[in-house]
Write a structure and sequence with these properties.
- There is one protein chain.
- By secondary structure, the chain is of the alpha+beta class.
- The protein has a single domain (13-91, 136-304, 346-468), classed as Outer membrane efflux proteins (OEP) (Up-down Bundle), CATH 1.20.1600.
- Helices cover 62% and strands 10% of the residues.
- The protein has helices spanning 2-11, 53-65, 67-87, 138-204, 210-244, 272-277, 280-301, 346-412, 418-453, 456-468; strands at residues 93-104, 119-133, 306-317, 329-338.
- The two termini are 50 Å apart.
């Protein structure tokens, strides 16, 4: 009997799951735009390159207190426990039971099977042991599938870490952009009030018509509308940033202005295959595929006999005085066999389901790679062009500032009409707003590169999150 038990244990190391082989599909050898090689940036907290201590503190605060991250952390713990439950079936199971009772048989009950007194005691203690002989790898495959699901959920947590970090960065950048646009709007509003007062004085002196007064007044009203619009936009960004920080809405601290934030000149790059396959969503998709592949082994094992090794040992007596004597011992051991014979096609369809799920996961994995390649190319192209756009917008503001200065001087001296002055003022106002927006867009596209590519910095931020939430 011992020989057979050892044989079963030896066979328990095999599984019927197909061998997993990574199928990423065709990967490009280069990106659509050239990049400078600076791999170190990908493994560091890249947001620190903006050289804004307030921003760094906000990111750290979000990693410590964001509620979505806390949910993700404990969801991983749920999957850890589930993996432990599934894997526990790989080990022998033991349980114990005991009893202590006093009984009385009916004196009017006649039975030759119950000799002796009608009143007595029954004491018993039994140790039960069982071991599922996983000959076909059913439990082992289920354990592999559960472990892959656990790894996939860890990548979900890291994806949320990435989303929280980049969300804080983008929200902060947008908030500082709106702060700058509000400042420009307030300055423009003050300038237009001055123009309105000048137009009013000139009208009262009979130098101009009332039309210029009304026109100047409408410009003041337009500027006031812009001020109100940016105040609303700032409040919305502050509320969003507070949510990301895991606190009620308040006014977050400010650091550098949108123009003072530093963008590193070198854009980091990897080989495409390395860059894409390290994204949390891509890694998650692959782990889902590995889990689906292991579930095929579970479905196949159900077609074969299932063996369960059982054993009981204990003691039973009517008197405690001889409870531990050898004559009170009871025991049994053996093997249970279970084989499903007819299931109406259930087992066959379970196997079909497992295979179809694997193919679906395979194409989902390959799609996640294609999506990653697209997003990385999008971010690289957008950042390169946005940098050029920002330079052009800055030059345009300088030109419009000179134009407005000349128009103002000539208008005050009466050498040009009000419409020329108004045209210069309007263009400068719009140019300044466009420049602030282009700065924000350039900073955002820089963040997009890291968000699209993933990298070692995600692991660093994930470790900081776990440490802060211990």
């Amino acid at each position: 009997m011992k020989k057979y038990l050892l044989y079963f244990l030896f066979l328990s190391s095999c599984t019927l799951a197909p061998k997993y082989e990574r199928e990423t599909g065709a990967l490009p050898t280069e990106w659509r735009v050239s990049t400078d090689e600076n791999l170190a940036l990908f493994n560091e907290p890249f947001w620190q390159k903006f050289e804004d201590e307030i921003l760094n503190g906000l990111v750290d605060e979000a990693l410590s207190y964001n509620q979505d991250l806390k949910v993700a952390i404990y969801t991983v713990k749920e999957f850890e426990a589930q993996y432990g439950i599934v894997s526990s079936k790989l080990y022998p199971q033991m349980s114990g039971s005991g009893q202590a009772e006093r009984f009385k048989f009916s004196e009017n009950f006649i039975s030759t099977d119950i000799p002796g007194p009608s009143i007595g005691n029954n004491f018993g203690l039994l140790l039960n042991a069982s071991y599922f002989a996983d000959i076909w790898g059913k439990v082992r495959s289920a354990s592999q599938a559960s472990y892959a699901k656990l790894l996939a959920q860890i990548e979900v947590r890291r994806a949320i870490v990435l989303a929280v970090v980049t969300g804080v960065l983008k929200t902060y950048i947008k908030m500082r952009s709106f702060d700058e646009e509000l400042r420009i709007s307030l300055e423009t509003l003050a300038t237009r009030w001055e123009s309105f007062n000048i137009a009013k004085v000139r009208f009262e002196l009979g130098l101009t018509s009332e039309m210029q007064v009304e026109q100047a007044k409408s410009e003041v009203e337009d500027a006031q509308i812009e001020v109100d619009r940016f105040k609303i936009a700032i409040a919305l960004q502050e509320n969003l940033l507070s949510l990301l920080l895991g606190k009620p809405s308040n006014t977050p601290p400010r650091g550098k202005t949108i123009e003072e934030l530093v963008i590193p000149k070198n854009i980091p790059s990897y080989l495409p295959s390395t860059m894409v396959t390290e994204r949390p969503d891509v890694v998650k998709s692959e782990q889902d595929l590995i889990s689906a592949n292991a579930n095929i082994g579970v479905a196949r094992a159900l077609f074969l006999p299932q063996f369960n090794i059982l054993g009981d040992f204990g003691s039973q007596t009517s008197s405690l005085s001889n409870f531990f004597s050898s004559s009170s011992n009871i025991w049994q051991y053996g093997i249970d066999l279970f084989q499903e014979i007819f299931t109406g096609g259930r087992l066959t369809n379970q196997l079909k389901l497992a295979k179809a799920t694997k193919l679906a996961m395979l194409h989902s994995y390959q799609q996640s790679i294609l999506t990653g390649l697209k997003e990385i190319n999008d971010s690289l192209v957008s950042h390169k062009i946005s940098n050029d756009l920002t330079k052009e917008q800055k030059e345009r503001v300088e030109t419009l500032t000179a134009y407005f200065t000349l128009a103002t001087d000539q208008y005050v001296e009466g050498l040009t009409d009000y419409l020329t002055y108004l045209d210069a003022e309007r263009k400068l106002f719009q140019g300044q707003l466009a420049y602030a927006e282009s700065l924000a867009y350039s900073l955002t596209t820089y963040v997009d590169i890291f968000q699209a590519s993933g990298g070692g910095f995600v692991l660093t931020a994930d470790e900081a999150t776990l440490k802060a939430n211990q």
